[in-house]
Write a structure and sequence with these properties.
22 helices; transmembrane; transmembrane helix
Length: about 575
């Protein structure tokens, strides 16, 4: 009888969660109900002579630009994420994957160079050219650093007769019994956070992760036929001059800084690639020239942030950052207790930081002129971000929460019965962050922008689409907190709330449509007679594919990490 209320509440939560996809999917239906078929009548396209020429409509050498786009998509969306995941776990396949990426990127750059030389400059001074060259050289420098380090290790191994016993013993500092206790208390085995226990190549838990004979993951073990030969052997050839030079460089003190640069690039290259990809689309369609740059910056930066927040949310569901308790799990007890921010604290800080920096930019488009009602609306939204972010950070502060408990902590001590002693323990929910403020801020933003007046009917409907998606994502996060409150996780392994999949989908799709709601993008949709549902349906399909790809890439990282662990003991 005591379990009946809990069961009924859980059933209610699951029923709401089951209905949530309808909220995410209804998209522009409201727009059709409000505006009927008058959308294209109200939003008449410009005359062809008023619309500037673009690379998108340029008829010459289309094969070159299509080839460039295809190769860059393959390189930056398919190959590079795999290379980054391999690099994070020091996989033997890292350098090969990086070279495949460099080759693909080089051919893509070559095609774009030929295309630029063969066509008129339709977008003078665009940012994509500069960003593209910068990021190409950054990736090339990272691969060069990795190659030098690899050659240095090979040379060092050949001169010392391969993997010496002393080298092997450096990975076995504790007994098997000590390791079993350490493994289950310190490492979830699911993490992807840089610098945490599951990624340190010299960590006990990293090296021994799957060596336990009683491991529950033995079904993933592969036949010995698939094991790779070690990188070096006693019969390795004598080092070349280049190999000796690489070893010399890798043994200097400055090499530590090169390794730091390599690790930093690993962690920023994918967002940097997203920026290059976005500026490429802008240049291709000739968006945001002149005064339109302010609308472009506002929509594409904010939309990009929500898109990456969706990727981050899906990563948390998949088990990323489990070592710091960000995967809806109990945070493993570290060997040396260190403060780590919660995921909600990080989200609240980003919201606060964005509001603090953006409050001075809301009037840039009309600098020197009078403030319009729309400017004041945008200013109020930034104030919401500042206040909501600050409130969220205060809620996440253990010091603040401890002060709020002062009235009970300072109660005069007296002999307690067993029942009273149990009542004096902290609730199980204290182990987890139940902070809905970041989700509330995003939900309010979605509600406000869904009803925000726009200069065209199509723009209003597109804004309503991404506003509804952000609203649905926030609602899904709220359901996650209810599930966690009703039944807090008891394991260091990710609990993977199903509602987080809905939240990730809503954030990713909402972010992309947010970017598509800028003034120039809407003008282009009107010019090419695209309905709002075209953008909506294409985005839904794209996000579904991207979610599947992210989960696969993270699983591939786990496979590579286990393979490196096993090879250490063979």
């Amino acid at each position: 009888m005591m379990r009946a209320p809990l069961v009924s509440r859980t059933a209610l939560v699951l029923a709401v969660a089951a209905a949530l996809p309808l909220v995410l999917a209804h998209g522009g239906d409201g727009g059709h109900g409000m505006h009927g078929n008058g959308s294209m009548e109200a939003d008449m396209p410009k005359d062809e002579s008023e619309y500037p020429p673009t690379y998108f409509a340029h008829p010459e050498h289309r094969g070159l630009i299509v080839g460039h786009i295809a190769l860059m998509t393959i390189g930056w969306v398919l190959i590079l994420p795999v290379a980054v995941m391999f690099s994070l776990v020091s996989s033997r396949y890292t350098i090969y994957t990086q070279f495949v990426f460099l080759a693909t990127n080089a051919v893509g750059v070559l095609l774009s160079t030929i295309y630029n030389a063969s066509t008129p400059d339709l977008y003078p001074g665009n940012a994509h050219h500069s960003i593209g060259w910068i990021i190409t050289w950054v990736v090339s420098a990272q691969v060069l650093i990795g190659l030098v380090g690899r050659i240095a290790r090979v040379v060092r191994g050949s001169q010392h007769g391969g993997d010496s016993e002393a080298h092997k013993h450096t990975f076995l500092p504790v007994s098997e019994e000590d390791y079993r206790e350490f493994r289950h208390s310190n490492d979830s085995g699911q993490g992807t956070e840089p610098g945490t226990e599951s990624l340190r190549s010299n960590s006990v838990s990293t090296v021994h992760g799957d060596h336990d004979l009683d491991s529950p993951h033995k079904e993933y073990e592969e036949d010995a036929d698939f094991e790779e030969m070690p990188l070096t052997s006693p019969a390795a050839p004598k080092a070349t001059k280049f190999g000796k030079l690489a070893k010399l460089v890798a043994s200097t003190r400055i090499w530590t800084y090169f390794e730091l640069v390599y690790k930093i690039i690993d962690r920023i290259i994918l967002p940097f690639g997203f920026i290059a990809f976005a500026t490429g689309m802008i240049a291709y369609a000739r968006f945001f020239e002149g005064h339109g740059v302010y609308s472009g910056l506002a929509h594409w930066i904010k939309g990009g942030i929500f898109f990456w927040l969706g990727l981050f949310t899906l990563g948390r569901w998949s088990g990323a950052f489990a070592e710091v308790g960000w995967a809806w799990n109990i945070r493993p007890k570290p060997q040396h207790q260190r403060w780590r921010p919660t995921a909600e604290f990080t989200e609240s800080f980003l919201i606060f930081f964005y509001g603090s920096t953006n409050i001075f930019m809301e009037h840039l488009g009309g600098a020197g002129g009078a403030w319009s009602a729309q400017d004041l609306e945008h200013l109020a939204i930034t104030v919401l971000f500042i206040g909501g972010g600050l409130c969220g950070m205060l809620i996440e502060s253990a010091w603040i929460r401890n002060l709020l408990n002062t009235s009970m902590i300072e109660v005069e001590p007296m002999p307690l019965s067993d029942e009273e002693r149990e009542q004096s323990f902290e609730p199980a929910t204290y182990k987890f962050s139940l902070n809905p403020i970041p989700a509330l801020v995003i939900m309010l933003l979605g509600i406000m922008m869904s009803s925000h007046q726009q200069p065209s009917m199509l723009s209003s409907m597109v804004h309503k689409q991404w506003g509804d998606l952000l609203f649905g994502a926030s609602l899904a996060r709220g359901l996650t907190y209810i599930l966690i409150y009703l039944r807090p996780p008891t394991s260091i392994y990710p609990s993977r709330p199903p509602t987080e999949l809905l939240a990730a989908f809503g954030l990713m799709a909402g972010g992309i449509i947010f970017m598509a709601s800028s003034s120039d993008t809407v003008t282009g949709m009107i010019h090419y007679k695209m309905e709002e549902m075209f953008m909506y349906t294409v985005t839904m399909g794209l996000v579904g594919v991207l979610m599947a790809w992210e989960i696969f890439v993270l699983a591939l990282k786990g496979w590579a990490q286990r393979k490196e662990r096993r090879s250490t003991f063979h």
